[in-house]
Each structure stands twice: as structure tokens, then as C-alpha cells.
Design a protein that fits this description.
The chain has two domains: about 1-90, Aminopeptidase, CATH 3.40.630.30; about 145-370, HUPs (Rossmann fold). The protein has about 375 residues and is α/β, with parallel strands linked by helices. The chain has helices at about 15-30, 75-90, 105, 130-140, 165-175, 195-205, 235-255, 270-285, 310-320, 325, 330-340, 360-370; strands at about 5-10, 40-45, 50-55, 60-65, 95-100, 110-115, 120-125, 150-155, 180-185, 210-215, 260-265, 295-300, 305, 305-310. Helices cover about 35% and strands about 20% of the residues. Helix 4 (about 130-140) crosses helix 7 and helix 7 (about 235-255) crosses helix 8 (about 270-285). The radius of gyration is 22 Å and the shape is globular.
């Protein structure tokens, strides 16, 4: 390594050469290139790319250093540069993915472990109080006067859009619990905006007793907890993506609210969603954790005309302008909003509008794939 290292930021979408060199470096380090990264900090030594670190919003990922140059100060300088870049772009609360063997290094740089899939990946954040402060806010919303053995339920929905199926699941869960906590995914990458989704859910569950409606957070079904990550072993990507999110729920969110059961709808169509439900049972009920197990209750979806109701079917019908069939699948406020605001936003037979107007990004795909 020479004494003249050149650090600079690059938009990978604008330079084929930079993108090619980053892919090659990541490949030598056993990592995958991620299409959703918005900017990279790269380092060149005499013109040769020797280090890179990517930013996707406030998530640091795709950090790689040439294997021949590890062990020196390059790692610390690279991380300092990408953190500084994140601050310049308005992100002070950062998340970072790394392999478990690198955790001690990042701890020395001010990051703190949140969840780990043993042997594969650790999610960290750059504050010691982030998850604790969030759980303190949740804890303040615990209902008073419940007996120690109360059955406390949890439901997480994306509601893109809110359907009669969501409403049915919430009512069914509430009827089986002493109290139910309902979360609406706050990541704003779905076809229906978060503001509209939350408002529809709020209207749709009004009158259900013993229920607290919560805004989502970055600690639940978000870009941070559902990453497109870096493994060459493609078979473990989905497992790691769901595991991080579910471990955060079991180890932090559920204890804060005393949640003992998590409710989810069955998935008759999508193999990915069926896999997610199976992962939920493993990580919430069976995997080793110091936190109490959370029992997973899988309820059969309600049907309309013999077909299970799903938000993806509503979106498909919206693309084909089939308002009559949509009316039978959603509450009246959802129908009116779709007709007045969202029908004009899509072209007939366009791709499923989960993400930014077209092909969904990874968090949006997985939020829907999670049966929510």
C-alpha cells in the first residue's frame, strides 16, 4: 500500500467503471453487490480500488477491504469517511450490517449490536440508547391492571391497502387476548402511502376493545431489519433477512409490551410467505434466546367468493380497474380512497405497484411477502 490513498464518494448508478470495480472487490471479499445502495465511499491506492462502503439511506452496508490490506488503519478511516458522508446527507442514526467476527471492531468505532444470526450476520446501530429508548416508549403504553398471566397479542400489518382480511385477523386476535398490540409498518415504500395506510387501519379497527394501535419503527419490518444482504450462499439470504427482524421483535419489542402471542394469517398462494410464517415459528418460539418465547398463532384467512382475501389481489384488481370486485374485499374507507386517489396513479396492467411506482424494492417485497 502506498502513502497516497484517495478516498471519495461515488454514485454507482452514474459510473460503469466504479460499479464494475466495486463488484469485483466485493466478490473477492465474498460479498454481493446491492443495487439499492445510493452512494459508496471508495478508496483507491495508485488507482486500484482497495476499499468501499455503501450507504442505503441510513444503513451502512457492503463494507469491503482488499484482503491484502486488512489489519491496519484503513478500516477505521473507511468507516469514519462513510459515517461523515451519512451525516452530511442528514442521517445521524445509523445501522450497520457485518459478520459476527467483525463486531468487536465496529464496537470500538461506536456501534452497538442489536441482533445476530449466529455465524452469518449482526445488525448494529451507532447509539447505545436507540433500541432501549424505543422500548421505553413502548413500555409506557402497556395497559395497567392486567393479571400477570394475561394473554397479550401482537399483530404487524403493512396494509397495502387495508382489507377486510386485515380487519378479520385483528378482530379474531383481539377476541383471543386480554390485550392486543397492532403495529402498522412505517417504511414508506408501498403503493399506498404510510399516512394513508395508518389512517385506514385506524378507521378499520375503531371500536375493537382492548387494542393499542402503534406506529411502526425502524426496528420492525424496515430497510434496516429486512436487508438485501451480502451472502454468496443465496439460500441463507431470506433466512437472515427474516431472522434479524424476528429476533428484534422477540428480544426487545415483545418484552417491552409483555407480548406472549403473535398472530398471522395463513398464506394459500405465496411460497415465500409460507416460508416466512415457518421462520416466525422458529425464531419466535424455538430458537435459543434469553427472551421468553412468543407463541405464533396462524389463523386461516377469511374469504370472499371462496377466495382468500389478500392485499395483493386488491392491487391486481385495481390495475385492471375492477372496482366491483374490490368493493367486496375492502372496508368502505379503503374503497373510496383507492377510487379517488390511487386509481389514477397506475396504468392498467402495470407491474404490481408495491414500491416506487413500479418494481418494488426489497423491503416492500418482504413486507408484503411476510403476510402483512
Amino acid at each position: 500500500m502506498t502513502d497516497e490513498l484517495d478516498f471519495y464518494a461515488v454514485d454507482p448508478a452514474t459510473s460503469a467503471r466504479e460499479r464494475r470495480d466495486i463488484r469485483a472487490l466485493l466478490g473477492r471479499c465474498g460479498l454481493d453487490y446491492e443495487e439499492h445502495i445510493q452512494v459508496f465511499v471508495v478508496c483507491r491506492d495508485a488507482g486500484r480500488l482497495v476499499a468501499c462502503a455503501g450507504l442505503e439511506s441510513n444503513i451502512v452496508k457492503c463494507c469491503a477491504i482488499d484482503p491484502d490490506l486488512r489489519g491496519g488503519s484503513l478500516s477505521l478511516t473507511l468507516l469514519s469517511e462513510v459515517v461523515h458522508l451519512a451525516y452530511e446527507r442528514g442521517h445521524s442514526h445509523l445501522f450497520l450490517y457485518t459478520r459476527p467476527e467483525n463486531v468487536s471492531f465496529f464496537q470500538g468505532c461506536g456501534f452497538y449490536a442489536l441482533a445476530e444470526v449466529p455465524g452469518y450476520v449482526t445488525l448494529m446501530e451507532n447509539t447505545p440508547v436507540g433500541i432501549r429508548a424505543y422500548c421505553d416508549r413502548l413500555r409506557a403504553q402497556r395497559p395497567r391492571g392486567l393479571r400477570p398471566d394475561a394473554r397479550i397479542g401482537g399483530v404487524v400489518i403493512n396494509a397495502n391497502p387495508f382489507t377486510l382480511g386485515h380487519q378479520y385477523l385483528v378482530k379474531l386476535a383481539a377476541a383471543q387476548c386480554d390485550w392486543l398490540h397492532l403495529f402498522v409498518v412505517s417504511e414508506d415504500v408501498s403503493f399506498v402511502s404510510y399516512r394513508d395506510r395508518f389512517a385506514l387501519v385506524e378507521q378499520g379497527v375503531r371500536g375493537i376493545e382492548r387494542l393499542t394501535l402503534h406506529h411502526g419503527s425502524q426496528y420492525m419490518v424496515s430497510r434496516a431489519t429486512f436487508p438485501d444482504y451480502f451472502f454468496k450462499e443465496k439460500g441463507v439470504v431470506g433466512d437472515c433477512c427474516t431472522a434479524i427482524d424476528l429476533l428484534l421483535f422477540r428480544n426487545h419489542i415483545a418484552p417491552a409490551l409483555g407480548i406472549t402471542h403473535r398472530f398471522v394469517g395463513t398464506e394459500p398462494f405465496c411460497e415465500t410467505t409460507r416460508k416466512y410464517n415457518a421462520d416466525m415459528k422458529f425464531w419466535l418460539q424455538g430458537a435459543g434466546s434469553t427472551a421468553p418465547a412468543v407463541t405464533v398463532i396462524e389463523e386461516a384467512r377469511t374469504r370472499s367468493g371462496g377466495t382468500p382475501i389478500s392485499a395483493s389481489e386488491v392491487r391486481r384488481l385495481l390495475r385492471s380497474r375492477d372496482l366491483d370486485r374490490i368493493r367486496a374485499l375492502v372496508p368502505a374507507p379503503t374503497f373510496e380512497l383507492l377510487r379517488e386517489k390511487y386509481l389514477s396513479k397506475i396504468l392498467p396492467f402495470a407491474p404490481d405497484p408495491l414500491g416506487h411506482g413500479g418494481e418494488p424494492d426489497a423491503p416492500a417485497r418482504r413486507a408484503v411477502a411476510a403476510g402483512i
